[in-house]
Amino acid sequence: MAVISESAIPGTAALVRTQPAMISCPDGAELRGVFHSPDHATPLTVIINAATGVPARWYGPFASYLATKGFGVLRYDYRGVATSRSAASRSTRWYHWGQQDFEGALGWVRRHRPGSKVCIVGHSFGGFLPGLAHSASDVVRILTVGAQYAHWADYPPGSRAKLILKWHLVMRLLSKACGRFPGRRLGWGEDLPSGVARDWARGLERFEDHFPQSQRDHIRECFAAVDADILAIGFTDDPMASPRAIRRALEYYISANCNVITLDPVGLGSPSIGHLGFFDERKGRVLWPSAAQWLRGQTDGSIFQTSSPKPPDETVEEDRSNSQ
């Protein structure tokens, strides 16, 4: 996976100060992150929740851009990933990333940015997991990009067989054999704890089914406690996050004000954006001003002004994916 270095951010690196952020989780685990300081005082802080297997450094250019627009921005690696690799154990699961790691990130902001209003930018599973944290009710706005939790039946027909083979068969077998998913060796993103890889590979229809029966009601209640404004962005060429998958993830946020927008990269002047391109400066930068506006609570003149309460017709979206 291509990674953009912070030193290669044209026009923004000189304006943004970064500092290491050590994040303490409720269970005592220590995570590594980076805080991007705004170039002028602001009461807004953004936490970036990464996709599974994507290192926090991938989001550096986007974080720096938001900092030039007045946001304080915290990006961090989950336990078991990249710079926080040593914080994981074999038993680390997806829900640890929400209940412990994201909760720890919220705690870091409370300590270092007291009184700040907290917004989230969540990519893929990182856009779904906020509802797992006990303090997520403190969040005021959540911008998600391709957010879902990898239920295999939601993949568009044109990419379903390939993704099932890759993420639900090969991942499961290699994780069992190696005790960890060797993503870097395969060129499939970062290495992952075996528990996280197994959660992804199971591809369950209902996310709470990853938990014992006695915990499932509590999980649904945590999601229901989130009353933030949520804008879920999807792309017509994203093979992972179909409109059905995005809607399935949003259904857990029953108290939130949810809107969805599905964008066609061609209409944005880009041949492709897919699942990762929003955070790639070459492909996604055209959308960053609108992202900053929405996080600030402004939509006039934004590309996201056309957001609607429901995803577009899924048949149309899935037919397009067959022609990719």
What this model shows, in words?
- With 324 residues, the protein is of the alpha/beta class.
- It has a single domain, classed as Alpha/Beta hydrolase fold, catalytic domain (Rossmann fold, 3-Layer(aba) Sandwich), CATH 3.40.50.
- It has eleven helices and ten strands.
- It has helices at 60-68, 94-112, 125-128, 157-178, 183-186, 194-202, 213-224, 243-250, 281-284, 288-295, 314-322; strands spanning 17-24, 30-37, 44-49, 72-76, 117-123, 139-145, 180-181, 192-193, 229-235, 257-263.
- An eight-stranded mixed beta sheet has the order 1-2-4-3-5-6-9-10, with helices on both faces. Strands 7-8 form a two-stranded antiparallel sheet.
- Helix 1 links the parallel strand 3 and strand 4 (72-76).
- The longest helix is centred in the middle third of the chain and has 22 residues, at 157-178.
- The radius of gyration is 18 Å and the shape is globular.
- The two termini are 20 Å apart.
- The model is unreliable at 1-12 and 307-324 (pLDDT under 50).
